[in-house]
Amino acid sequence: MRLKIRHQPDFWAGALFVCVGLAFALGAQHYPMGRAARMGPAYFPTLLGVCLVLMGVLLAWQACRPDATSAKVMSPDWRVAAVVLGAVCLFALTLPWLGVLPAVFLLAFVGSMAAHDFSWKVAAGVGLGMMLFVWLVFIKGLGLVFPAGLLG
Fold first, then answer.
1. How far apart are CA 134 and CA 129, in angstroms?
2. Cα separation of 20 and 35, whole Å?
3. How many other β-carbons are positioned within 10 Å of the β-carbon of residue 25?
């Protein structure tokens, strides 16, 4: 019986999950595994990698089922990819100078420009929401110390 890929986006997403999961699981084997009660440095990446592989196999299998809807892979939107990558680079560059909260705002705001229905108000709301989330979870909740930058 010949394998027929009916839903190409799901199949290739599953293949990507399998590859990334294998890379994590195999790459972590250079460290001690430990046990569930006393986890070593390889425990979490190995477990995460195995879960990604299983999800990827399931997703790829679903894409090959006879009742799967037919869909083709579309060409990538390079503008969206460039905006998202640019937002991450901007975050990395501004973090030491501005501090974590303004850098997170810029990351979310500029990243929102990748949307085809971009709105300044929505982008500002997402940026402010992400700032609040980072402040509540990482700074107040976990007590992590981030670079204060020029603003702090």
1. 9
2. 23
3. 19
Exposure letters 96-115 (e unless 16+ CB within 10 A, then b): eebbbbbbbbbbbbbbbebe
CA distance 52 to 54: 5
Instruction: Report the chain's terminal Cα–Cα distance, integer Å.
Output: 65
The helix/strand/coil state of 34 is strand
Q: What is the CA radius of gyration of the chain?
A: 20
Give me the tens of pLDDT residue by residue for the chain, a chain 152 residues long: 577 889 899 999 999 999 999 999 999 999 999 888 888 999 999 999 999 999 999 999 999 988 888 888 888 899 999 999 999 999 999 999 899 999 999 999 999 999 999 999 999 999 999 999 999 998 888 888 887 666 55
Q: How far apart are CA 36 and CA 19, in angstroms?
A: 25
Specify the pTM.
0.63
Residue that has been written with the tokens 């990748």 in this structure: 114
92 and 74 Cβ atoms separated by less than 8 Å = no
Look at phi and psi of residue 40 and say left if phi exceeds 0, alpha if psi is from -120 to 50, else beta. beta
Q: Which residue has the tokens 């001690």?
A: 32
For residues 151 and 98, is the Cβ–Cβ distance under 8 A? yes
